[in-house]
Amino acid sequence: MEIQDRVYKTIIVDEPVIAEVIESAPMQRLKKISQDGPPHLIQPQRNVNRFEHSVGVWYLSKLFNRPIEEQLACLIHDVPHTAFSHVIDFVVEDERHEYHERFTEKIIKESEVPEILKRQGVDLDVVLEKHRYPLLENDLPDISFDRWDYFMRDGFMFGLLPQLFVDEFISGVKERDGRLYFPDMRLASSFAILFMSFSRLIWLDPTSHGAFLLFAKALKRALELGVISEDDFFTDDETVMQKLQSTNDDEIRTLLEKLSPGKEFSYASESESDYYSSNKPRFVDPLVEVEGELVRLSDKITNFKEYFSEFATNYKMIGVKQNL
Predict the structure, then answer these.
(1) C-alpha to C-alpha distances, 249 to 157, 200, 215, 263, nearest whole angstrom
(2) How confident is the model at residue 103 (pLDDT cuts 50, 70, 90)?
(3) What is the pLDDT of residues 242-263, one digit of tens each?
(4) In angstroms, rounded to a whole number, what is the distance separating the alpha carbons of residues 296 and 204?
(5) Is 100 part of a structural domain of the chain?
(6) What is the reported pLDDT for 279?
(7) Hey, is 31 helix, strand or coil?
(8) One-character DSSP codes across 65-84
(9) What is the CATH number of the domain that holds 117?
C-alpha cells in the first residue's frame, strides 16, 4: 500500500496488519473529522483531518522501528475522537481535553479492529495499554510522536514550516530509553521556537479560540433541544452539521451564521471581549544531548525559561471579539 501524504510525501505501508487497520471503518471515519475542529468553518485552509494525522503519527513510529504493537497504538490513537475534534471538551467543560479518551476501548472493541489483530496474531490488549508507549503521547514539555506530527502538519498546512525544516527534524530527532531528543542544540532551539510560535499563531489564534466557543454554544443548545444526542458526536463532522442546519431554532442559526468563512476574531480585553476564558498554551522544552547526557534545552539556554514562563502566563486566559 502507498499513501501520498502532504508532509512525508510517499509512505509505503508494508505490514499487512497496518494496511488492514488503515482500511478499517474506524480509521476511514477519521477522514471526515477535522483535525482543528470548528475553526476550519471560518478558516477553510485548516483542512487537515484526523486520518492523515493518525497515519503521520504511525509513520514516525515506523521510522523509529518501534514494535508492531506500538505502531498500531500510534495508528489508532485518535479513533475515538468525536466530530469536530476537541470541541466536545468545550461542551462538557473538560479542561484537560481528554473526553474522547474515555471511549477508546469501547469504540475499538466494537469494531472490526479486534478481528483484524487476532487474525494477524497481535494482542489487542497490549496495543490498548497506552502507558507502555511514552513516545506516542507524553506530558509537555517533551516531544512525542503525536505532538511532533501535529506541529509539523499544521505548520506545513499554514505555510509556516518549509519542507527543509520537516526533513531536518525527521533526520535530527533521536531516541534513547523511550525519550526523544536532539543531538544538535541549534535544531532543538529551532524546534522550541517554532513550536511556541505555532502555538500562538495556530492553536491560540483568536479565531480558533472564538470558533470553538461559538460552536460549543451551538452544540449545547442543540443538545438541550434534542436536535442532537451525545451519540452523534461519534459520527462525523458532516452528520453533526447537517443536524444543526436542519433546525429552525433562531439561536443555533445565528451562531452557525457567525461560523462562516472570513468572519475572523481578534484578541480583546476582558471588558471588550465576546468571549473570555482559559486556554491551553503549549510549548516544548526538548531534551538535548550534551556530553552524553540528556538535559533540557532551557537548562543550557536559560533565556528559554523566561520565554516559556511569560508565554504560559500571557495566554492562559484569552479574550476574543468577532469582527462582524
Answers:
(1) 35, 35, 15, 21
(2) confident
(3) 999 999 999 999 999 999 999 9
(4) 24
(5) yes
(6) 87
(7) helix
(8) T--HHHHHHHHTTTTTPPTT
(9) 1.10.3210.10
State CA 111 to chain mean position distance.
23
Q: What is the pTM of this model?
A: 0.94
Q: What is the per-residue pLDDT across 23-33, written as a single tens digit (0 to 9) for each?
A: 999 999 999 99
SS3 278: strand
Whether the Cβ atoms of residue 138 and residue 34 lie closer than 8 Å to each other? no
Give me the number of domains the chain comprises: 1
Three-state DSSP class for 9? strand
Q: How far apart are CA 245 and CA 237, in angstroms?
A: 12
* Phi and psi, residue 248, nearest 5°: -100, 5
* Strands 179-182, 287-290: pairing kind: parallel
Residue type, 50: R
Q: How many CB atoms lie within 10 A of CB 317?
A: 12
> Which among 56, 43, 49, 50 has a CA at the least distance from the CA of 7?
56
The residue segments making up the domain with residue 160 are: 2-205+281-322
Nearest to 219 by CA among 252, 245, 242, 246: 252
**Domain annotation covers residue 32:** yes
3-state secondary structure of 39: helix
In the Cβ-directed half-sphere of 23, how many Cα atoms lie within 13 Å?
10
Q: Give buried/exposed letters for 5-14 (b at 16+ CB in 10 A, else e).
A: eebbeebebe
Give the pLDDT mean for 95-111.
72
How far, in Å, CA of 27 to CA of 258, rounded? Answer: 31
**How far is it, in rounded angstroms, from Cα 52 to Cα 212?**
22
Q: What is the pLDDT of residue 98?
A: 59
Question: Residue 52 domain-assigned?
Answer: yes
Its sign, for the CA torsion 147, 153, 157, 161, is: positive
Phi then psi dihedrals of residue 9, to 5 deg? 65, -125
**Residue carrying C-alpha cell 480583546:** 268
Question: Does residue 263 sit within a domain?
Answer: no
Q: How far apart are CA 236 and CA 239, in angstroms?
A: 6
Tens of pLDDT, residues 141-151: 999 999 999 99
